[in-house]
Fold these 3 entries.
Entry 1:
Amino acid sequence: MDLLAQPAVRVFAFWYLILVLKMLMLIFRTSATRMRLSTFASPEDYGAVGASPAGDGGPDERIERLRRALLNDLESILPFFGVGLLYALSGPSLGMARLLIGGFALARVAHTIFYLRGLQPHRSVAFVIATTFLVWMLVLTLWSVL
């Protein structure tokens, strides 16, 4: 059976790949910021470029904000992978799959933008919206397997 032939699974696959792309962009941006600022994660990283930690060697807030945004993604998108996939496989209507899966993904993209720009309460609102869609998928999926 070709899973990608199922419309809801295709919706999930599309949005999940968009979220992975977003996470990769955060990873690359964090790395580029570290290189630009010559602020590395580990002592051996400084040695690899023939440098030593500057100043107090403490974390740079620009890098830490990027890292926190990525950590938040891991905490939300990892559960979405399992819940969203099982939800898509449960045979939901295409409209509902688009609403819940696409809504979750768009809220996560918005959350990252708001996080990087330091915008509250926008960041919290985006988090609540994404979490609501995730819980909704979880409940519907649990209901379908009972």
Entry 2:
Amino acid sequence: MAGPPIRPPVKRRLEDRGRGRPAPHVRLGRAAEEAAARFLQTQGAQVLLRNYRCRCGELDIVARCGEELALVEVRSRSSEAFGGAAASVDAAKRRRLARAAARLLQERPDLARLRVRFDVMAVKDPLGRAPRFEWIKHAFSCAAHRL
């Protein structure tokens, strides 16, 4: 006795769930990235790209800081219970960031001439009036990772 065909579940983007409003963690992430980009600009950085995506991963913010190219991973957490935002950039995430960076530099040779650094920007209370920032420059090196 065969029933109706089984259909695979429909994949929906996080933004599509609910009544067209983004999920709370998506709103938090977007607000953190926006606040971080504004903060970087106040510090003299030139934001070149935001949310660069490729098969390998995603780079939240690509900014030029003098003669360095800062690849900034933006993190925000509603609680510090599990080590905070900066501690959430684990080895697997660092590998994905390094691979995405290699891909970006292949696509954009004009950026490849700059020294590259990986930064982590922890944003506390990005939806509030006065978000707080912890900018960890040179947070990790990709020399230990295979690109």
Entry 3:
Amino acid sequence: MKVYGADICIDCRNFKHIRKLRGLNLEFIDITADTASLKEFLMIRDKGDIFKSCREEGGIGIPCFVEGNRMTLDIDEAFSWIGQPPVRKEEILESRD
């Protein structure tokens, strides 16, 4: 599974923390690391129906989970694809207060 995100995003930081806690070997593509990664993500974002509300509201749409022809912005849905249970409250590193 590929996960597009950026370290400036709280949800992406939480994903990376959970990935480490669970020992998951999932590819994290930092879209702010280089222009090639950003362009790759923008190609997906500009065409994907799941990003419609993000585009309309000025959001970014990260973290974005991609496996084969499946794509989601929901970590629990993405984890279900690989047989992982939903995220537990105690696994969240940072919360929005």
